[in-house]
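Entry 14. Structure prediction run on the chain below.
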Amino acid sequence: MNYFIGALKKYAVFEGRARRSEYWYFVLFGVIFYVVIGVISSLIDTNILSLLFSIAIFIPSLAVSVRRLHDIGRSGWMILINFIPIAGFIWYTVLMCLDSNIGQNEYGPNPKMPVSISSIVPPQPNIPMSS
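Output returned:
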């Protein structure tokens, strides 16, 4: 639940990286809330609640997806592969399941390792080589 709320707090943040767990928990809770809202909407015989939820969750869904793509070293524009029928959805799902790039990439530091390794391990002194 914290990942879902965290993604909502980063409502339109398209920079940085998102871990697999952040993305998949956001998807999980989004689906659960959508099903609950769908049941409530059917009980009161209106679809306005589902529509409002879909509109409210659209931008955070895009943002967490783009950050997830950044985590594996891909451009956020790769989200457009979803427009390729069938194969695009499969390809996108595989990308979302890939592990993070190790260390820092062009989109920022690895969220799994918030502390830089260089700050933990002291640099080795330069020892001149004797000939």
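The two ends are 61 Å apart (CA to CA).
Filed with the rest of this week's runs.
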